[in-house]
Amino acid sequence: MSKDREAQLDAPDQAGGPRPHMERVTVNLTARASDALRESVELTGDTKTDTINRALLIYAFLQSVMQGGGAVYTRGSDTAELERVRFL
C-alpha cells in the first residue's frame, strides 16, 4: 500500500476530529473466513489482529481502485495469465 493511501486512512475523520488509535469490535467469522484467517496467520506469523487489520486495509484499497474505475489483476505464477479480481 502506498504511503499516500496509508495517510488517507490515518487522516482525521470527516468531522475534523482525530480518529481513534484503536477500536474494539466483535465479528462472527464463517467457517471459510476462519480457515482463511488461520492460514494467513500461519503463512505470515502475524497475529490475528494484525492479519485482520491488514486485510481490511487491502480490501478498502481494492474497493477504492475499482470504484474509481480501475481494475485489479492477479497472476498465480510468472507464466500464468492475468486474471481480473472481482468482488461479488
Give an overview in words:
The protein has 88 residues and is mostly helical. Helix content is 48%, strand content 5%. It has three helices and two strands. A two-stranded antiparallel ribbon has the order 1-2. A hairpin with an 8-residue loop joins strand 1 and strand 2 (83-84). It is extended.
Show the helix and strand layout.
Layout: H1 3-10, H2 31-44, H3 48-67, E1 73-74, E2 83-84
Antiparallel strand pairs: 1-2
Report, as a whole number of angstroms, the end-to-end distance.
23 Å
The tally of strands reads 2
- Proportion of residues in extended strands: under 5%
Major sheet attributes: 2 strands, antiparallel
Q: Helical region count?
A: 3
State the secondary-structure class: mainly alpha
CA radius of gyration: 16 Å
Determine the mean pLDDT: 86
Strand arrangement in the largest pleated sheet: 1-2
Which consecutive residue ranges, at least 5 long each, have pLDDT under 50?
Answer: none
Note the run of SSEs as H and E.
HHHEE
Can you tell me the overall shape? extended
- Estimate percent helicity: 40-55%
